[in-house]
Amino acid sequence: MNRIRLLLAILVGKTFIIISRLLGNQGSSFPGKMARRIYPGILRELAAKVNGKIIIVTGTNGKTTTSNMLGRIISEPGTVLVHNQSGANMLPGITTAFIEKTSLTGRKHFDYALLETDEAYVPLLIEEVNAGLLLITNFFSDQLDRFGELDNIVKMIKDTVKDREIDLLLNADDPLTAHFRDLTSAHSFYFGFTATGYDSYDSRESREGRHCVICGQELEYQRYHYAGLGKFTCPGCGNHNPEPDFTGHNLVMNPTIELMVDDLEINSPYQGFYNAYNVVAAVAAARIIGINQQQIQTAIAGYQPQAGRMETFHINGRPAVLILVKNPTGLNQSLTTVIQDHSSKNLVFALNDNAGDGRDISWIWDADIEVIEEEQDRIKQIICSGLRSGDMALRVKYAGYPVDRLQIRSNLKEAIAHIAGLEGEKIYLLSTYSALFECRKILLDLQKQSDKIPVEVPARG
Ligand SMILES: [Zn+2]
Fold this sequence. Notes:
This protein has helices at residues 2-22, 30-38, 42-47, 63-74, 91-101, 122-128, 141-144, 150-161, 180-183, 273-288, 293-302, 328-340, 389-398, 412-420, 433-452; strands at 54-58, 81-83, 112-116, 133-136, 167-171, 188-193, 220-226, 229-233, 246-253, 256-261, 264-271, 309-315, 318-324, 345-350, 379-385, 406-408, 426-431.
């Protein structure tokens, strides 16, 4: 009976996958949802056909980039990898990913499964799939605490992994996840950084003030790599960073990433320290499952940023970099990338408050926009756009940016067209989620137009 329901669920799922493709939806969770209604055991059964490891990737920031990099590393020709697309990272979306890769008989075997999911869904997922490795990129309480959820999620994940045959891969520089090993019986690997030339020692960045998870005292940091990640000790109980098994060092961002992970040299077209963490996490996971060094190097070097994750367009011969921002930590890190790039540049902030962005935009006041002061001379103009362009302009004004170089253009198309016509070597667009795809479309159109006219080299400012 189950066999018949499984076959029917696969058939229905595959049909809906084809329909949703025709409708232009990718990474849909709907086919999986329908299949699970017909046969709730479908994910459990299909996941049992993974011969190699099932890897779960979770965390507050970087899980999509990390899992996509890792997916690229694993997908050699001939390897059957089940990998859910971002945006479909709950159980139905993951079920869709398995249905897509299985055969109509449901008997096909897979080499690996790479499953990206939100922290809150890890326990449910682990109930249905026999995961071999759980990678946690980091936990940022500034985002989770909005929902008062951090403690709850940490506890749920701990309870879930306890006494299971699952390895953890954790961020040694993140005090909120580093202790998982001590609280569970799970074997843990760690990745982290040694001191880098980009560390800060007394940052002005509005940090959440991290507290020791063991005794509650405020942690002391010797250095910060990025946000609350760094070298810490607890003055109360001595809790400190665990020794990493995979160490990032010799980091150079010029502006793309070059670094070593132990003795392996890695180059990535990505930018920014937070992406350097994603690279190290992906390399560590690949090493754990036994992928050879050259395959890792080649895949990461060839892996280009995707929409909103530092995607670069070329408009009139100048790079325009599009970055998705959705919380203060992400915005701080994006701004760090902007100010570390010493080209002359213009900036667009596209702030929307649709459901996909979060209705509450007060988070822009938590971000450390004041850092732009350091680069004020090279940031020629800032245009605030999107549904909440006025709020963003007010925030930028309070950050001390000169108002005579600050503009509000709520219409995105106008804002981007304007900035594309300005002098400067580079354009940066920082956009919230619901404005991202419109920005992308406008940039692609401008890129197409500028491909048709001869390239002008802009004057260096
Ligand atoms: Zn302590």
